[in-house]
């Protein structure tokens, strides 16, 4: 009150909404090979009417505001990265929850060729994978017995000399990414080794 005058009382109502808890995320897979699928799900309760603000390696994920789960099929390596979500209710939003998904490239099935597919005992031959692969790729070669061929994991080429008929059969190759996480389909090639006739005796 000043000089006998009284101001009008003004009031306002302030509404304070409760804080929205940070959501919990569950991923169906944290590491996978390209071509497979994965999903990420909010595994916690949210306020009624709230929406989801999802983002991924490429930015905001469209058409996902009403879904507690995001799903990706036939995943490419470009989907590898961090995914996050905020819960939005009115003018309030939670802190972001985040999870990381790594999508590794799956090597292409190798194309195999040989210097010869039919030969005689005592001859030589080589089998090659003609594809180009990243440094550090792992090569698993198996021979006619089905056993892994020793000392061949770093080589795209197998070489054999002075072969015998037991060297004939099916040779296969599976290529594994440098991370060791993803493997190609197996490719095979068949080698035939015929016995060399004995030198004839002339009497």
Can you put this structure into words, describing what you see?
The protein has 203 residues and is mainly beta. It has no helices and 16 strands. The protein has strands at residues 25-27, 31-33, 38-42, 51-56, 59-60, 69-72, 81-89, 92-93, 97-104, 112-114, 118-120, 125-129, 138-142, 157-160, 169-176, 187-194. Strands 2, 4, 5, 7, 8 and 9 form a 6-stranded mixed β-sheet that branches. The protein is rod-shaped, with a radius of gyration of 33 Å. The chain starts with 24 loop residues before the first strand and ends in a 9-residue tail after the last strand.
Q: What are the main properties of this structure?
A:
single chain; 203 residues; mainly beta; 6-stranded mixed β-sheet; 4-stranded mixed β-sheet; 0% helix; 38% strand; rod-shaped
Proportion of residues in helical segments: under 10%
SSE sequence, one letter per element: EEEEEEEEEEEEEEEE
Poorly predicted sequence stretches spanning 5 or more consecutive residues: none
Per DSSP, the total helix count is 0
Multimeric organization: single chain
Largest sheet: 6 strands, mixed
Taking all residues together, what is the mean pLDDT?
A: 92
- Rounded to the nearest angstrom, the distance between the terminal CA atoms is 144 Å
User: What's the total number of strands?
Assistant: 16
What class do helices, strands and sheet pairing give? mainly beta
Overall body shape: rod-shaped
Q: How much strand content do the residues show?
A: 35-45%
Radius of gyration: 33 Å
Brief digest:
The chain is an all-beta fold. It has no helices and 16 strands. Strands 2, 4, 5, 7, 8 and 9 form a 6-stranded mixed sheet that branches. A 4-stranded mixed sheet has the order 11-16-15-13, with no helix packed on it. A 3-stranded antiparallel sheet has the order 1-3-6, with no helix packed on it.
